[in-house]
Amino acid sequence: MNVSSFRDCQAWRAEGLPMSTTSNEACKMYDAVLNQYVKWRNDDSLGGFEACLSALQTADPNFVMGHVISTGLELVGTTTSPRLNERLSSAVKKTVELAKSQDITPRERLHVQAMQLFSQGNFPKACDAWEDILLDHPTDLLALKFAHDAYFYMGAQTRMRDSVARVLPHWKPHMPMSSYLKGLFSFGLLETHFYDQAEKVALEGLSLVPDDAWAVHAVAHVCEMKAEVDKGLKFMEDRENDWQVSDMLASHNYWHWALYFIEKGEYEAALSIYDSQIFRRCKTSGAMLDLVDACSLLYRLQMEGVFVKDRYRELFQISQPHADDHVTLFNDVHFLMVSLGAEDSGTSRRLLEGLQELAREPGENQQHQMAKTVGIPLCQAMMEFDQGNYSQSVDLLYPLRYQVVNIGGSDAQRDLFNQLLIHSAIKSDNTRHQKLGRCLLVERDAVRPNSPMTQRLMKTALALHV
Which residues cross the membrane (predicted)? Predict the structure, then answer.
């Protein structure tokens, strides 16, 4: 990609998004970073994120939006907590101080405010600030994308969809990256169960940009939620060369591919994807999305009766350093899957106790506020299941059914907890739980007809409780 194609000071001004810097190079590098963020891709021709962020910092060390995008991306990545990471915490403070000392635009000031709120775990108020920006500047893609990610972390599905819907009319085909809004909107549609519309919008996006990995990912979700397994497998395979170039989302798309195999009961094929793609990428990238996908895949396979203990031990080396992060509940429950699987009871206990401690005085942190009602009982249910206390697991999980959405993630990712409840109910020695398990399977069959996994579990339930 040619650096000259990125927007300089004048180009940003012409779009109604003026930047408080006189450095054209800083403006172009900001654009280069934004491009890669939206495309989920380290662009090698630019030296990837790292080189662009470094060039951005060199071009204008005091460029407030440069600090906003650089620190904001690290925060939204959730791989480290500003509560524990002094360097990240200082980066947030520095951005706030820079903003105070300069005459910047109201839009830039709101960006700084949103980033600071997000760093404090106040995701709802951060989103309010980003929406405030979008009200006057609907083409501010950084505000749109940061809000999209934060809504995702809160499980705020309708807001995630509507946030994109509101700005769509302001985006014209000639605008840089306009086609990527199709993938963003499609994701919001599918998370609010508009599956046919979601697929249509994603395919429109792919007809414009065939390598939009987020739009591919939206179609993968639709096939997953409708249990259209063979269609999903074919779609991922046909487009693999297009989407695997997005190194930041490739592992997640392979995860979707593996889910189809688990659905079909083809465990070896799922394990093969885990070994060759998911674990390999997770080890190299250290990215949180890659890590939680690896955790989730092993847990699902284990529920299906597949032996994965050795793989858990390997993965534990990567997840264990994050046990005290507590940035999102979604991440926490995934780390717990691995410490349980690796039979490291000390780490499992530490993770739960750390969460309990933070839940006592959560302050403005939305995730810590949710810990008491959802996060902690969810962790306890997983621990009971691990101990073979299935009826206790049901007692903890069943009341949470409609609250689990609040830990964030997608319907497909959270489906693991529906499966966990069904497995717990089927295995429980309480006859009411067993009956509940069969009812949940009937319900699952009604909304996802022709699911091979549902059929398998029905057979198991009937065989156990004749």
Answer: none
How far apart are the C-alpha atoms of 339 and 345, rounded to whole Å? 7
Q: Which residues contact 265 (CB under 8 A, 6 or more apart)?
A: 304, 452, 453, 456
Whether residue 318 contacts residue 286, with contact meaning beta carbons closer than 8 Å, is answered with yes
State how many domains the chain has: 2
Is 304 in contact with 336 (CB distance < 8 Å)? no
Question: What does each C-alpha distance from 463 to 87, 260, 374 come to in angstroms?
Answer: 56, 25, 33
Say if residue 158 is in the same domain as residue 84.
Answer: yes
What are the residue ranges of helices labelled H in 102-170? 106-119, 123-136, 141-154, 157-167
Q: Is 223 within the bounds of a domain?
A: yes
| Identity of the residue numbered 355 | L
CATH number of the domain bearing residue 9: 1.25.40
Tell me if 278 sits within 8 A of 289, measured CB to CB. Answer: no
Structure-block tokens of residue 305? 């009766």
Q: How far apart are the first and last CA of the chain?
A: 64
Nearest Cα to Cα of residue 249 among 56, 37, 434:
37
Residues 224 and 90 in one domain: no
Contacts of 277 (CB under 8 A, 6+ apart): 250, 251, 254
Q: Which two tokens stand for residue 109?
A: 């000031």
Same domain? 16 vs 67: yes
**Strand, coil or helix: what is 17?**
coil
pLDDT at 436 over 70: yes
The pLDDT of residue 466: 62
Same domain as 63, residue 136: yes
Report the predicted TM-score, pTM, of the whole model to 2 decimal places. 0.97
Its domain, for residue 13, covers 1-172
In this structure, are 199 and 105 located in the same domain? no
User: How far apart are the C-alpha atoms of 418 and 457, rounded to whole Å?
Assistant: 12
Six-digit token pair at 201? Answer: 């919008």
